[in-house]
Write a structure and sequence with these properties.
Radius of gyration: 22 Å
Number of strands: 23
Largest sheet: 7 strands, mixed
Length: 499
């Protein structure tokens, strides 16, 4: 019997799971929380050393739990990695020391950098390079963060500096013996989020590197999502191949078995991310979506996707918990929301760092509108959950418009899917059924494990395991459309604030 270990390195936590390659079931798991750093307004950072140390702890702990269940390390064929995307790390290639904290994907310190970059394009538009890279110029993407580092951190311009997203940082360190260099690679899904990779060639693009002023020698080699990149140097998995690598949202698409054109999933984590498989076609959005690589298995052709990204998903629950002290734990949000029958026309637009798809508006800021003397904590909590649903609804409608074939059902995964009330809200606001599998909370890690297992020839699962819960809309089409219309009115009031 064969097993595979998967690492899921996210914004708020790092997790490792051991998967049975014959059933797809999870045998062992371990999670460590991560602390974000907010040094200034709009700045979001994580210590790269913490990213690595929690990963090492999770790997060894998950293996120990598997061993306690009678599974030897010899039976674990290898490991796959999935990671928070766009988060940018630079380090000294000789010493391995980080030169700055990791700049997290939702950090928006680069607003002025973005304005300068847009002004430097021939068309003076954020979408000038979209045909080539699938992305607008935005604080979201790695090349913009790297440009800020080059402009503001002198050490980053020195010799022997390496750049990578979190996958690259982890693989480099996992394959590194003391005093030596690790394997400096990334995969096509993570590279497609930098603005430096050409979607057509799947290689670093000379024009894009020149535009951002990035020396290609600091960039990792681009590989497929499923192949052997190197071997773990130390710890309980020493000698095991690292054979799978995908950005977290692409890993969830893969883990949800969205292998056919038109199949889509939405992951509800710190942010929300909906991806729709477009097959081997590069589909450029006319409605504010991103074009990205979904996955590439070894020598097979790359599969692409349309993506809608929401910056603030589950993060709004954390904000209510930590900033407003409205709840003591994230799970309390469901009970608090259930104390009221509706928001009574209260809307919460959590544009804490601007709006992502389909608006791409860095000037927007958070807004709660419709407050009356009747409003209480329950209304605000319910409006916060509905805000996540409304943002996903706008992405779905953009996807339907781009594809010309409306989605009939949405597969879901991520931490927020444990909230049954929330999934019912989502179905009502979308106007289509929402599905969630018992195991879907681990779809991201499952995707990374599957990619590794496929490269190693040990994956034997033909279909997704577990029971499916289906949530059908319970409101009329007229009511659904009215609520979406009112949401859009609230969004418009949140825009052009940080000018």
């Amino acid at each position: 019997m064969a097993y595979v270990l998967a690492v899921d390195q996210g914004t708020s936590s790092t997790r490792a799971i051991v998967i049975d390659c014959s059933t797809g079931s999870i045998i062992a798991e371990h999670c460590e929380t991560l602390v974000s750093i907010f040094p200034k307004e709009g700045y979001v950072e994580i210590n790269p050393v913490d990213i690595l140390s929690t990963t090492l702890q999770c790997i060894d702990a998950a293996v120990e739990i598997a061993e306690e269940k009678g599974i030897s390390t010899d039976e674990i064929a290898g490991l796959g990695i999935t990671n928070q995307r766009e988060t940018t790390i630079v380090w000294d290639g000789l010493t391995g020391e980080p030169l700055y904290n990791a700049i997290v994907w939702l950090d928006n310190r680069t607003n002025e950098t973005v304005k300068t970059l847009i002004a430097n394009t021939p068309s003076k538009t954020a979408t000038h390079f979209q045909d080539k890279v699938g992305l607008p110029i935005s604080p979201y993407f790695s090349a913009v963060k790297l440009r800020w580092l080059l402009d503001n951190v002198p050490e980053v311009s020195g010799d022997n500096v390496l750049f990578g997203t979190v996958d690259t940082w982890l693989i480099w360190n996992l394959t590194r013996n003391s005093g030596e260099s690790g394997v400096h690679v990334t995969d096509v899904t993570n590279a497609s989020r930098t603005m430096l990779m050409n979607l057509h060639t799947l290689q670093w693009d000379n024009e894009m590197c020149a535009f951002f002023g990035v020396d290609k020698k600091m960039l990792p080699k681009i590989c497929s999502s499923s192949e052997v990149y190197g071997h773990v140097a130390n710890g309980k998995m020493a000698g095991k191949p690292i054979a799978g690598c995908l950005g977290d949202q692409q890993a969830a698409l893969f883990g949800q078995h969205c292998f056919e054109r038109g199949e889509a999933k939405c992951t509800y984590g710190t942010g929300c991310f909906m991806l729709s498989n477009t097959g081997t076609d590069i589909v450029l959005s006319k409605h504010g979506l991103l074009t990205t690589v979904a996955y590439k298995l070894g020598e097979e052709p790359a599969v692409y996707a349309l993506e809608g990204a929401v910056a603030i998903g589950g993060e709004v629950v954390r904000w209510l918990r930590d900033n407003l002290k409205m709840i003591s734990s994230s799970s309390d949000i469901e009970q608090l929301s259930d104390t009221v029958d509706s928001t009574h026309d209260l809307f919460f637009v959590p544009a804490f760092s601007g709006l992502y798809a389909p608006y791409w508006d860095a000037t927007a800021r958070g807004l709660i509108i419709g407050i009356t003397a009747y409003t209480n904590r329950g209304h605000i909590a319910r409006a916060a959950l509905e805000a996540v649903c409304f943002q996903v609804c706008e992405i779905l409608q953009s996807m339907d418009a781009d594809s010309g074939a409306p989605l009939q059902c949405l597969r879901t995964d991520g931490g927020m899917t444990q909230n049954k009330m929330f999934l019912g809200m989502q179905a009502d606001i979308l106007g289509i059924p929402v599905e969630c599998r018992k195991e879907s909370a681990e779809a991201t890690a499952m995707g990374a494990g599957m990619a590794a297992a496929k490269a190693l020839g040990v994956w034997k699962v033909g279909s997704l395991p577990g029971d499916v819960s289906r949530y059908n809309p319970t409101v009329s089409v007229d009511e659904q459309e009215l609520r979406v219309k009112r949401w859009r009115e609230a969004v418009q009031r949140s825009r052009n604030w940080a000018v």
